[in-house]
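Researcher: Quick sanity check before group meeting.
Model: Go ahead. Protein one:
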Amino acid sequence: MWKTLYKLNLAESTVLWNAFPWHPHKPNIEASNRKPTSAEVAAGADILSRFASLYPNARIVAVGQVAAEAIQRIGLPLAGAVRHPSYGGATEFADGLAALVAS
């Protein structure tokens, strides 16, 4: 993700935040990753909304479907969505973000 942000000259002006602001991991395997559950995303909705309010002029881009759904659910303006770079999606993420920047 950061490699792409630097390549597009966005790294210094980008703030990242997760729809679920904690680390979802497999039971008893803290170094693992997993998709947050709907309940976990719902639990993070208020925090996401409050965090976004700190940047009232920000262009919000969802990284992944979970983020897009969370942002839309709380009514934030969504400038676009790109594929999450995990699980082989790095190229689609980079291409999608480049397309959003160009528009």
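Researcher: Fine. The other one?
Model: Protein two, sequence then structure:
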Amino acid sequence: MITVLFADDHEMVRIGVSAYLSSQKDIDVIAEANDGTDAVELALKHRPDIILMDLVMKEMDGIEATKKIIDQWSDAKIIIVTSFLDDEKVYPALEAGATSYMLKTSKAEEIAKAIRETYAGQSILEPEVTGKIMNKMRTPQRTPLHEQLTAREKEILMLMSEGKTNQEISEELFIALKTVKVHVSNILGKLDVHDRTQAVIYAFKHNLIQ
């Protein structure tokens, strides 16, 4: 028997899906949770083969519950079953440690099939989820602008944030004023800003300076 914990804050959903799953000869729903907090407690108590996890629940959402379960039980197999297909839900859920991702529009027999395949070691993703992941992989990730700065330029940016003039920076770093001006020009260009104030604001926003 494949033991299952079903966490969902909609009672009718739990009743309907659990009834179908329990009618299967190889699946046994041993516990139900109506929020993330209960899901974590019951998962660690019963150690079911599969955890069906809703994302949006009271007390604690499915993403946080998944993280807490995986932190304490790294071998847990969690299937997200949700109505959400937004990027801000899909990626955090998978990064948290979810094994599979299903939509609530899936038929009960499809969920049962996903339980069996996940139990067998496969990762089941809805076609829409797979498409989103592939598109994200194809999209080149832009390198943050400030990573182009050299160590000297970061040092000068720090002094700029303290309100120091080019002359004061020159004297403090023992470099020529002309060299300071070149560095400042490079900083503005690499950060794609027009003046010193914008450069300092960028630095604050990206935690480059305190």
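Researcher: One line on it for the slide.
Model: DSSP finds ten helices and five strands in the chain.
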